[in-house]
Amino acid sequence: MLNQRSSSADSFDQELHNDILKTVAYFDLFEYPLTTDQIYSFLPRNSVTAERVALAAQSLVSEDRLSHSDGFYFLPSGNSAMPRERIEREARARRMLSSARVVSRFIKQFPFIRAIFLTGSLSKNVAERSSDIDFMIITVPGRLWIVRMMLTMFRKIFLFGSRKFFCTNYYVSENGLTLDRRNTYTAVEVVTTKVIWNSEAFYEYQRHNLWTKQFLPNISIPVDEQLLISASRSILQRVLEFFLEFLPLHSIDERLMEYHRTHWQKEFGHVGEERMKSMFIISPDISASWPEDRQVPVLSRFRKNISQLGLR
Q1: Alpha carbon 6 to chain centroid, angstroms
Q2: What pLDDT does 11 receive?
């Protein structure tokens, strides 16, 4: 009986070690070392305490299977400067988050927008010098492509096409909050999304994507109160919506969607249908464009890293 218990405990510890290595290996792809709390939060299991995770991480360091510096864990094969670089990127992100709040106050004036979220690296509190501010725009149903057209025209005319502080490549209507693509990559992106305007819409977005718990059962998703801007809609937005409603907006929205479908098909159709599906989402309730298509290569590299670590 004692031998069975010992064997069971050893098996549990081994599984925990493997899960910790997988978690660190995933974020190593982004040169993002993790704290103990983050390892626990992003661990793909919930049958363990945070204290047990901390002890297991230290055990992996003593076995030279993990490296530890300045409170951060990373793979020994990774860049040893990652902890220092993460601290620098966090300082840069704090400055960019201030800019994101300023830009969001302007974006919320546009008609038919109901919430503004942050995605990308900035939503994880880090930023490279080359990083954009990636906004996720929540719209009124049936107006999504109109909103996209307005924001794109503003960026092209007044910002000369610059995306640095005005990258709006992800639009979702209030009817399209549930994500169909479900994997480690999309789960991490959903749970690290930050809200700038309309926390109620943010909670609704998270409720629609509780499937993320299948991948990240320990995660908690707090709202950063200091990042929020005024929850009220502006008078300008209300006035603009009142007058625009006299136009055949549903028809206009549908035509804009088909225009974008045709345009993207002509520009990127050579990559093939399957690749196009991973690069773009085109529907009445979702407009997303990721020409760099990070999801597929990231998951491919993750599987390769796992294999090199002798894990499955």
Answers
A1: 41
A2: 63
Distance, CA of 203 to CA of 209 (rounded, Å): 10
Torsion of CA 232, 127, 23, 116, to 10 degrees: 20
Q: Are 139 and 180 in contact (CB under 8 A)?
A: no
Give the C-alpha separation, 113 to 140, whole Å.
Answer: 6
Q: Which distant-in-sequence residues (6+ apart) come within 8 Å of 147 by Cβ?
A: 110, 111, 112, 113, 137, 139, 171
- Tens of pLDDT, residue by residue over 235-248, are 999 999 999 999 99
- pLDDT lower than 70: segments of the chain: 1-12
pLDDT at 12: 60
The sign of the torsion formed by the CA atoms of 82, 85, 91, 92 equals negative
DSSP state of 34: B
Measure the CA–CA gap between 147 and 171, rounded to whole angstroms.
9
Domains of the chain with CATH codes? 2-80 (1.10.10.10), 99-294 (no CATH)
Q: Within 13 A of 288's CA, how many CA atoms are on the CB side?
A: 24
Can you tell me the distance from the alpha carbon of 22 to that of 26, in angstroms, rounded to the nearest whole number?
Answer: 6
